[in-house]
Amino acid sequence: MTQPIKQHLIDPEICIRCYTCEMTCPVGAIQHDDTNVVVDPDICEFCMDCIPVCPTGSIDEWRVVDTAYSLEAQYGWDELPEQAEIGGGDTDEAEALDPAIAALLEDAHKGAGGKARAPASAARPSINLYTIARPATATVQGNFRLTARDAGTDIRLVILNVDGQAFPVLEGQTIGIIPPGTDATGKPHLPRLYSVSSPRDGERPNYGNVSLTVKREAHGVASNFICDLKAGDRVQVTGPFGATFLMPDDPEARLLMICTGTGSAPMRAFTQRRARTVGNRSGGMTMFFGARSPEELPYFGPLKKLPETLLKTHMVFSRLPDQPKEYVQDRMMAEEEAVAALLADPRTHIYICGLRGMEEGVEKTLTNIAESIGTPWAALRDTMREEGRYHVETY
Ligand SMILES: Cc1cc2nc3c(=O)[nH]c(=O)nc-3n(C[C@H](O)[C@H](O)[C@H](O)COP(=O)(O)OP(=O)(O)OC[C@H]3O[C@@H](n4cnc5c(N)ncnc54)[C@H](O)[C@@H]3O)c2cc1C
Fold first, then answer.
1. Beta strands in 246-364 (DSSP E)
2. Which of 27, 66, 272, 290 supports an S-S bond with 328, CB 3.0-4.6 Å?
């Protein structure tokens, strides 16, 4: 299989042919004829100098392709081509995957109670571009501890840059990290999966980097390897994976996000995507986020700063001194009216992510709340799942 590449293009429908980009490009990659302004894929070095000078934004277009569009093809366009499917990116992803990865994903999604589907308005994901046999190499840009220094849990935000290679990810997808070395049987370690916690345009917008939120597990091979990474270290990466746990692009959709610990990773990506695109003009998001204490809650600070019209957060703690234990399902019950209104709204999408142990309690609470509005939960859940509105990823 050829390695896909990321190609820089200019949208001919929006471009006003001012040629500022062409005058700015330091390597002469941009040229024009009487019809279009185009980028030579053999010369462009992705320096991004042309991006801020464009008055219309037509310059900021990218496609992942197996073979770059030629200059002749670009000169012939009245409009940009759609992003084509790459590397077998289809919603029936299990067939395309390494069996070990397919089994991990199937197990993580089984709490949905049936075959999961992507939201109808979700962007089409690319999957399995990089495999165990042909991984990509990423460079670590940063590794920050999110939990308090003295907290018992060590959770890190690790930022990776997949050097010069196309690695398109959508919010809700996972990537594989291959720890170096071999297992007890002498075979190379298999990749472990981690949700991306950055939106599709990158941890830093348009820099094409991705962030992960990783918890150090006692004696865990990959989690210790990742949590110990330093800026400049190189890592073998597979993926992206996941064709169903995706966010709707419909700005009117309402998101009910229920998570514990590192299950907040995809929720952070969803939140950032909306904050960067539709913001308060969206259908809104509600999050129930559980941790043992505020010191062990990744993203507590940044999440608190978002306006309630964009994100209503319920931080729930199970180990506060002198207070009874509270879990996400308890707070959902306390907020019964708001949750019931979300369940009754056909624009609502539910996302549950985090520890496997959270499923049972959340399921019971959703059953109680759905029944309080005269709806049997099992039937509503199946309808939501078939409509791509109910998503579970637990591990
Ligand atoms: C779809 C999906 C998404 C995921 N997303 C994330 C994410 O966003 N963030 C995240 O942090 N994790 C995530 N995970 C979990 C992640 O993939 C790994 O399973 C996790 O990091 C542990 O991997 P490890 O190699 O460190 O542990 P392993 O070496 O695989 O060990 C597995 C478990 O056994 C325990 N163990 C191993 N050796 C010993 C020993 N000698 N004594 C006692 N205990 C031992 C470890 O503590 C660990 O809990 C996700 C999993 C899935 C399936």
1. 254-260, 285-291, 311-317, 348-354
2. 290
